[in-house]
Amino acid sequence: MASRYPEVYAEWQANPEAFWMKAAEKIDWTQAPTKAFDAEAGVYGRWFPDAETNTCYNCLDRHVEAGRGSQTAVIYDSPMTGEKRDYSFDAVLSEVKAIAGALSDLGVGKGDRVIIYMPMIPEAVFTMLACARLGAVHSVVFGGFAAHELATRIDDCSAKVLVTASCGLEPGRTVAYKPLIDHAIEMAHHKIEKCLVLQRPELQADMHADRDVDFRTALEQARATGSAENGCVTVKATDPLYILYTSGTTGQPKGVMRDNGGHMVALQWSMENLYGMKPGEVFWAASDIGWVVGHSYIVYGPLLNGNATVIFEGKPVGTPDAGTFWRVIAEHNVSVLFTAPTAFRAIRRDDSDGEFVKKYPMPSLRTLFLAGERADPETIKWAEHHLAVPVVDHWWQTETGWAIAGNPAGLGLLPVKYGSPTHAMPGYKIEILDDAGHEVPAGTLGNIVVKLPLPPGCLTSFWNADERFRKSCLEEFPGYYKTADAGILDEEGYVFVMARTDDIINCAGHRLSTGAMEEVCAMHPDVAESAVIGVFDELKGQIPCGFLVLKANVSREAKEIEKEVVRLVREEIGPVAAFKMVMCVKRLPKTRSGKILRGTMQKIADRQEWKMPATIDDPAILDEITEALRAHGH
Ligand code: COA
Ligand code: AMP
């Protein structure tokens, strides 16, 4: 059957506002929008400027009111603890109301910020929804970030309350959250008023008498006093739903801000048309709520569309084996799986012949979606072969909140070109510009940009930093959003996303800033200068690799200093930085104007062809870098 994509994309192009007004009919509003877009508002305009709504109502209450309360909404499956639990929409609503009651008892109201630092447990998702219910703004911080990163976020969004659990569970270790939280709160200049702590049976956290509140006790109280019965707080469609911090080009993370109305409209559209999901089916995004994929497609997208969502606390391999994903799909009747290519590379490495796949019949599985990093054709082909379902690569960013380009299963799949996430989704007009801002011919590599305005669901700005947003995303190519990805559009409109144009690297599907790591390297007293680049890694796609130049008077063993720097990055940014490869070198290669030649270093590390930069100061330094890399087995 021919895909309806061309006609739907053309419909959007012909009248974007009418297109999104029609999509908005799928959302329940307390005040329906009378117009789609206000070009004068916000940084680049705002969607649904006169509408009012509540996101939690749309995710939960409306399904219950429609008589679907007994349908499964959340499936928790933890190979880490052996627990499996299903929650109906009724049950989720009851928990969310109690958490909302507890939060409001702690003084949280509309517009207040709440930081959530929790592992992949149902309470994390319920807390996000509880914030939405109150019109409060959540900011989820990924559990692999260290205290300093958390403190930066507490300060940036001046959070009122922090919600956490006693621990996270990583293979082979229990990650005690509370000491880290206490340290972050102590470090932050802004003072958190209250900390709601969920005690997990695996580890009991110490509580601060005047600040910490036991999660379960607070819920019981909210139920007893009736505050758990409060309804949804009506917010403007343009009010913020959440802030999600993501890596920028410096150590200062960017607070990507998402609104309520446009976000729901876009996610609802994508669930049906991109992912091809019908209410009642099971959707599984094997990611973490700390990332954008988790926000959009573990929490909001599936619940808006009346789907059950899977909360999986485990890894693709080692918990206990490379068959875990297939077990979850088979046991919970998952229709669509969404994960990062790195997860498949990990599975393939442990089970190249797909023996585990054969153990678990998966008749429910219809499509596999991959995103977060470039999907290498070998991984796609392996998945296609063993799962025998279409594999869809789609491209998006924390900033956009949903796919910029993809292959829309709901509209009918388009022919696949390996290495390409297919076509622009309605809402996005993708162009490729050279550095001077001129459009390049089809098939030519350049800067991938999106014509403004961005569609509903995309960031409205950075939290408290409109100017930074303007400068970093909208200024370089006037009239466009700069994706900071480089790529190609071919003659048939297929987009190929090749590399970042900034210092962001993608490690195991996680977005990391090498600039932030350089800032930490520079904190070591013996380090004069450093450069961190992303080098190819078969499993994680890229891993960071640091080069250190020591101060002239340092006589200590280089190996010792390297170890200390690795420890420092782990302490400052967190284990998720995966910063383990570091080497001391005599000098860094630079241009005559003093710019470090990171691009050339990366090509040398990855054994790609490279040309001697014409502006290089001293070519001999590149030989020294090559030697250092080879000595480290790279
Ligand atoms: N809390 C605490 N620590 C965490 C953590 C968390 N939530 N998540 C990761 N870490 C730690 C890991 O334990 C590891 O620590 P270590 O250095 O002591 O081994 C470190 O951070 C690096 O983690 P990661 O890069 O994820 O490597 P890994 O070896 O643990 O796992 C994969 C590799 C490929 C299995 C894993 O990255 C994966 O499942 N990726 C899927 C990608 C994904 O979900 N992306 C989200 C966007 S779709
Ligand atoms: P994040 O904000 O963590 O989602 O990371 C976004 C970045 O990941 C993008 O800017 C791309 O560099 C990369 N990325 C995400 N999806 C893809 C994809 N399908 N193909 C290539 N790169 C991708």
From TrEMBL:
Gene3D superfamilies noted in UniProt: 3.30.300.30, N-terminal domain of ligase-like
Keywords: Metal-binding
Residues of the AMP-dependent synthetase/ligase domain: 66-451
Keyword Metal-binding: yes
Domain AMP-binding enzyme C-terminal span(s) in chain numbering: 517-595
Keyword Iron set for record: no
Coiled-coil region(s): none
Pfam families from the UniProt entry: ACAS_N, AMP-binding, AMP-binding_C
Domain of life according to the entry: Bacteria
Leader sequence residues: none
Acetyl-coenzyme A synthetase N-terminal domain ranges (all copies): 5-59
PANTHER family in the record: ACYL-COA SYNTHETASE, ACYL-COA SYNTHETASE SHORT-CHAIN FAMILY MEMBER 3, MITOCHONDRIAL
Family designation: Belongs to the ATP-dependent AMP-binding enzyme family.
Protein name in UniProt: Propionyl-CoA synthetase
Organism: Rhizobium alvei
